[in-house]
């Protein structure tokens, strides 16, 4: 494989090509545990065309497990190297992902070493029959129909066959240990315990008191006192990748070579929700500011004469030419959408004004809800959000069906996650008990648990139980990986060794 890393001192020798589908590189969950990938039902075999000598390939020791060096040697019979080569081929190793690939190969080798020791302790050996079956199922000698090709096997050199056998004998015992661990059956008692965690779900209703509750009259007064952020103008736009390209578009329109609409259709991006002719609609000044890398340029746009274009202005989508399709005008403060925008502006720029009001308002809504929950929502013009059957899940277990996925607005979930006392009260209060307002962000939720027979949760519980049984093997393997890589027997020198030996970087 041609190396992309010669300047970094990392050269992977050319080996026999290995067919496989390209895969995108996924990010690790944990830097150590997450880079370990062990395929439990197969062993990676690399069919070399050349036996590499160690005379020109230095041995690099990245760490130790149970006193045994974890070495990288660029030879066909080195497990670390075979993993490195396979991963480099799969993920198209380059300067950006090279360290992750080396790390993944290293931790796979550590895991393989530990499993091999377990196999030795259990006196597991590879019989002739097991060896033959492994060669047969390895996939190295298959015809076009995917069947084992005896002719191809017989045509292979003795050196190639011996190499494959050596790799199988070295790898298969560890694979057998991994498969044994993965095949451990989850006990009925354990499965029943997991099921019991979902046995007592509760459903909820909650009223949300947020910035939209701020009085329309107060919002209108605010905008009247400072109308500039809420000025509106009908705009069209064309966005190009560079300032030069945007200038060329202007020149073509001004010369009559094409119309604005034709240029917009040719450069359609819908970056700002514009239609095929570039029309954006009536835009509020504060909304235009949000589009620009330099918000002060919004003044230039709003001073543009009707029918005229601006010079290219840098936006977060590129370089944009704006056309004024109307004169700037004060916002219509009788429009509900305009008032909603004013309220959001106040929340962002003067949050204490909104928050002070919501604190008082939420208490008023709560007092009314205690008397009649539905009537309170109606009286204050607020909606009630329904949360279906959900179980208490303080540890955030993936096998407990909490309201993370059952809360359509997500506000009750957010409030519970930020306040354990409130979360607990949701599951300890009696049905229909209205709980005091709980703050989430700048909003308040007023919730109550409601009666449920749990039938809505029955199918999900059945699904969780099935998934628990299926995932128990994976969890057992993950637990083993974690115990190996966190044990005192493991000496991890990967980072320093990678920097000094692979990148030739001095570590201070």
Write the layout of secondary structure elements.
Elements: E1 60-65, E2 68-72, H1 79-91, H2 98-121, H3 128-137, H4 150-155, H5 158-182, H6 188-196, E3 202-209, H7 216-225, E4 232-240, H8 243-254, H9 260-266, E5 279-284, H10 285-289, H11 298-302, E6 313-315, E7 318-324, H12 336-349, H13 351-371, H14 373-379, E8 384-390, H15 411-418, H16 420-428, E9 438-440, E10 443-450, H17 455-485, E11 490-492, H18 494-502
Antiparallel strand pairs: 1-2, 1-11, 3-8, 3-10, 4-5, 4-7, 6-7, 9-10
Helix pairs in contact: 1-2, 2-5, 6-17, 7-12, 12-13, 13-14, 15-16
Walkthrough of the structure:
The protein has 508 residues and is an alpha+beta fold. It folds into 3 domains: 6-184 and 488-502, Triger factor/SurA peptide-binding fold (Orthogonal Bundle), CATH 1.10.4030; 202-211 and 352-453; 232-324, Chitinase A, domain 3 (Roll), CATH 3.10.50. Helix content is 44%, strand content 13%. The chain has 18 helices and 11 strands. It has helices at residues 79-91, 98-121, 128-137, 150-155, 158-182, 188-196, 216-225, 243-254, 260-266, 285-289, 298-302, 336-349, 351-371, 373-379, 411-418, 420-428, 455-485, 494-502; strands at 60-65, 68-72, 202-209, 232-240, 279-284, 313-315, 318-324, 384-390, 438-440, 443-450, 490-492. The strands form 3 sheets. It has a 4-stranded antiparallel beta sheet. The chain has a 4-stranded antiparallel beta sheet with strand order 5-4-7-6. A 3-stranded antiparallel beta sheet has the order 2-1-11. Strand 9 and strand 10 (443-450) form a beta hairpin. The radius of gyration is 33 Å and the shape is flat. The protein starts with 59 loop residues before the first strand and ends in a 6-residue tail after the last helix.
């Amino acid at each position: 494989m041609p190396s992309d890393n010669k300047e970094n001192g990392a050269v992977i020798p050319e080996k026999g090509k290995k067919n496989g589908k390209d895969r995108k590189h996924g990010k690790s969950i944990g830097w150590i545990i997450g880079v370990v990938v062990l395929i439990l039902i197969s062993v990676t075999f690399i069919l070399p065309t050349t036996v590499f000598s160690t005379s020109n390939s230095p041995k690099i020791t990245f760490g130790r497990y149970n006193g045994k060096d974890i070495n990288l040697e660029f030879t066909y019979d080195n497990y670390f190297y075979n993993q490195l080569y396979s991963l480099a081929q799969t993920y198209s190793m380059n300067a950006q992902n090279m360290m992750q690939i080396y790390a993944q190969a290293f931790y796979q080798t550590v895991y393989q070493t530990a499993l091999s020791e377990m196999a030795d302790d259990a006196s597991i050996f590879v019989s002739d029959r097991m060896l033959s079956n492994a060669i047969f199922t390895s996939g190295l000698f298959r015809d076009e129909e995917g069947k084992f090709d005896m002719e191809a096997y017989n045509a292979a050199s003795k050196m190639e066959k011996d190499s494959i056998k050596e790799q199988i004998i070295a790898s298969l015992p560890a694979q057998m240990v991994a498969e044994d661990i993965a095949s451990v059956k989850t006990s009925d008692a354990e499965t029943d315990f997991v099921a019991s965690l979902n046995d007592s779900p509760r459903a909820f209703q909650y009223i949300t008191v947020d910035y939209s509750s701020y009085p329309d009259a107060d919002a209108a007064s605010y905008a009247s006192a400072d109308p500039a952020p809420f000025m509106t103008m009908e705009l069209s736009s064309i966005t190009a990748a560079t300032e030069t390209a945007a200038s060329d578009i202007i020149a073509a329109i001004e010369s009559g070579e094409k119309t604005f609409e034709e240029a917009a259709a040719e450069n359609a991006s819908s970056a700002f929700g514009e239609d095929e002719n570039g029309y954006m609609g009536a835009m509020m000044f504060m909304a235009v500011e949000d589009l620009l890398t330099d918000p002060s340029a919004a003044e230039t746009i709003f001073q543009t004469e009707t029918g005229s274009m601006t010079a290219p202005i840098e936006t977060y989508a590129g370089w944009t030419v704006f056309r004024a399709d109307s004169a700037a005008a004060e916002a219509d403060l009788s429009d509900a959408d305009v008032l909603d925008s004013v309220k959001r502006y106040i929340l962002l720029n003067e949050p204490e004004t909104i928050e002070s009001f919501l604190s008082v308002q939420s208490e008023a809504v709560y007092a009314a809800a205690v008397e009649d929950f539905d009537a309170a929502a109606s009286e204050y013009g607020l909606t009630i959000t329904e949360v279906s059957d959900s179980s208490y899940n303080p540890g955030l277990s993936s096998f407990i069906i909490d309201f993370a996925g059952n809360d359509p607005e997500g506000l009750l979930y957010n409030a519970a996650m930020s306040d354990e006392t409130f979360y607990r009260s949701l599951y300890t209060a009696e049905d229909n008990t209205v709980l005091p307002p709980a703050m989430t962000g700048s909003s308040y939720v007023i919730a109550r648990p409601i009666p449920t027979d749990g039938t809505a949760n029955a199918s999900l519980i059945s699904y969780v139980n099935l998934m628990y049984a299926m995932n128990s093997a994976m969890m057992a393997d993950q637990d083993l990986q974690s115990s190996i890589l966190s044990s005192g027997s493991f000496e991890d020198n990967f980072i320093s060794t990678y920097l000094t030996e692979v990148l030739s970087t001095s570590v201070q």
